[in-house]
Amino acid sequence: MARARPAHAVPSVAAYDAVVVGGGLYSGHWHKDARRFVRHHRKALAERPLWFFSSGPLDASAGERDIPPVPGVKKAMGRLDARGHATFGGCLEQGAKGWVARMILRNEQGGDFRDFDRIRAWAARIGRELTE
Fold first, then answer.
1. In terms of residue numbers, what domain contains 63?
2. CA distance 82 to 97
3. Which end of the chain is more exposed for a tag (fewer CB within 10 A), N or C?
4. Contact 85, 34 (CB under 8 A)
5. Where are the beta strands (DSSP E) in the chain?
6. In a domain, 2, yes or no
7. pTM score of the predicted model
8. Which segments in the chain show pLDDT lower than 50?
9. Does residue 11 fall inside a structural domain?
């Protein structure tokens, strides 16, 4: 059974057979909660199947081509022998917090660029890999 949990709400990964860690992209960096989670649980993550994903491009680019992980994520993938990474389109809509978010929205560059069919297909591939 899969469980989606906020990174800050996971005290240990011991109960999980595999882990998928995702984070939003902000100025070329993964969200701080995702970075902290990987850093804090690095030993346990290295002992189980692991995948990463990023969410963030506020345009159609993630659906048009494979976007590689940002440097910090790529480095963590190598250190922890992660099995894969995907970048999905992001979502930034009215009401988002933070100065940068408000500026992006003010310039009409926000929106919802998530492709749920692509996300489901990627998750299904992970599921198949774990059951083979």
1. 18-131
2. 31
3. N
4. no
5. 19-26, 29-30, 50-55, 84-88, 91-92, 111-112
6. no
7. 0.92
8. none
9. no
